[in-house]
Amino acid sequence: MEINLHYYITTAISEIKIWMIPKKSITLQQTIISEKQQTMKHSLLMLLALWGCTTQTIWAEKQIYVSPKGNDQAEGTLSHPLKTIRAALDKANTLNNEDVKIFLRKGCYEQSTTLEIGQNGKYASLTISPYQDESVSISGGREISLSKMGKISDKEIAERLPETARKFVREIDFRKLNIPMADLRPSGFGRPSSPAWSELFADNEPLSISRWPNDSTVLIGKVLEAGTGEKVKDAKLPVFQYNEERPSAWSKAGSFWIGGYFAHGYASDMIRVDHLDPETHTIHTAQQTVYGFMTGADWRRWYALNLLEELDRPGEYVIDKENDKMYVYLPEGTRQLNVSVLDEPLVAIENCRNVTLSKLTFEYGRSIGIYLENTQHVRITGCTIRNVGGVGISIGKGTETPDKQTLRPHAAEAGGSPKSRVVGDLMGRVYQDILFNRNGGTDNGITDCYIYNTGSGGVSLGGGDRATLTPAGNFVENCRIHDFNRVEKSYRPGVWIDGVGNRVSQCDIYNAPSMAILFHGNNHIIEYCKITNVCSEVDDQGAIYYGRDPSELGNVIRYCYFHKLSPRHRVTATYHDDGACGGEVYGNIYHNAGSLPVLIGGGHYNHYHHNIFIDSPVAIHLDNRMQNWGTGMVAPNGIIDQRLKTVKFQEPPYSTAYPFLVNYWEEDPSYPHGNLIEGNLFYRIKNLVNGQTQWGEFRNNWSTNNDPGFVDPDNPLKGFKKDAPVYQYIQGFPQLPFDKIGCTLK
After folding, report:
1. Each residue of 113-132: pLDDT tens digit?
2. I want to staple 67 with a disulfide (CB 3.0 to 4.6 A). Which of 81, 234, 348, 713 is the partner?
3. What is the pLDDT of residue 120?
4. Would you say 400 and 467 are in contact if contact means Cβ atoms under 8 Å apart?
5. CATH classification of the domain holding 80
6. Same domain, 326 and 183
7. Beta strands 115-117 and 141-144: pairing type?
8. CA distance 395 to 415
9. Which residues contact 37 (CB under 8 A, 6 or more apart)?
């Protein structure tokens, strides 16, 4: 049949060549085709059409099916699916230059190691998604049967429990269940991000380590040993007094843990306690912190963790690593209990292009949810990333330090060596090496995703080359990101951005003790985001934050809504820290947006225009910090000088992209100049400026206590009326795209 098909096709091609001869060159005799020849022609055309259909079938996308009820020795069809995603990937890797779709049937796919995508793949594209929108979970944990939980076996442990909770607390023996269990670890400012301890989740919600006080903190008492020194690792261990009576009830506890803000309000920490002395009311810590312990500020507070004595309400548990047990007070009606196990990314997509993960749930890992490195045109779309101990999604390498417990005098100077599939001390490395290229790839997008209940941030968005100003074009778009600091609280934002030319658009970011977005680098865009209830615990921090590098230029913050930021401490919506320059900020709404909605800390040429400020005691803070406590930063060979030299600021591409930067040192860098505040609306604002007005140029602004023309004054996102006074009082005030602000996901 193959030979015959070849013969007819060859004949058909010959015939077609004849039929395609221009009419003028064909003789009358040649145009006379017999009835037999006409029939042959039509038959051959039909045969060619049939052959085309056949080849289309051969060249069509390859579909591979997987089911928890399948068999890895099966064909991978809908009726005979594979059992594991790993087997499906192995099959996909054998398909050369084909569009491959892996369909997952309903169920949970537990992973004991990272799912690797792209390492050996030769396909043209790969998509992994549920079959017909069935519910699919990719899990790094283990489900614990409720029937496997028993009463407390150790009488001494049972007696330490609060009397009201004893009959409800149950014991999980990890050795009997053959499940590995990870102990608590230090976490906080200056420490590398690393896998979380083993966490429990009831009906998809994270449970909490037992703590006192349950929902608050207490002030640090008298500090007997601050724990500071020229080198932190050489300093004495901190010792402080407690003022309350309750800690004295923990005398049998031995070692436990404390967390809080022990010195500076932006630097949370969690460390182990060696012992407590009820006679002297002192707590003796077992580990160092970056800044030691201080008193005298309202944020210098602490709380206790992992105490049997405080296991007093549903939803709490205690880790007993010595005996590989957990003691848990389950919420009433709990149907399912899971524990996180996997200490590496659930999925790693590396060195490939055209990969899509769609409508999947990733959960119960102790580390990163999804990791990308050196990828092009990867899409994470419609997915849910939740209940992981690390960051939800990380694009680009992190770092690893030789000694993960070592702290240096300034935590942000720790650094570390580049390493794949970790975050580590990324903050320290970027602080030290501003040209650090994470190999985040290009045109990678995270869209329409839910990212929540993560331990250490939402998305780490790397990509682009700062040395050449080559953009990556990676983006996070239309995502809902919230409750992302369960394990690590400081400097683990909803979105971390570094590199060049990345974008965060139309995201809802909310419910976090620290910042929503932290960025480094150049030419990033943050737009159409709704940011609420972040920086709820901290002092001296911003919902969107960057600083201490005047070469980080070309960044735009536009059309964002900042709302319900804490006025308790020094909380800012947009924070240009320590000489940050060239920020373009426009069309944003600052509505009850912290104690200082805008802070420009000694920088130059920041441009604020056509923003709306509502209901704040102060709108904009300007200062000249580089002329006082920050003089060292602009001194010869200071940190600013070092960073400008690193990017070769007087040579292309920086000199051509940012001409004003060439003359940075010729204009007094210690004096804040070139900051322009124009065309902004200040509604019910007591003081427009905190600082001196000569540190900025103010023009064409309007301050009023009367309604400037909102459709609904209680909801500024509904916009202005067509005849709103704001258009009359502020020349050139544009119609802002209020309807595009915020995520469209429900």
Report:
1. 999 999 788 999 999 999 99
2. 81
3. 81
4. no
5. 3.30.1910
6. yes
7. unpaired
8. 18
9. none
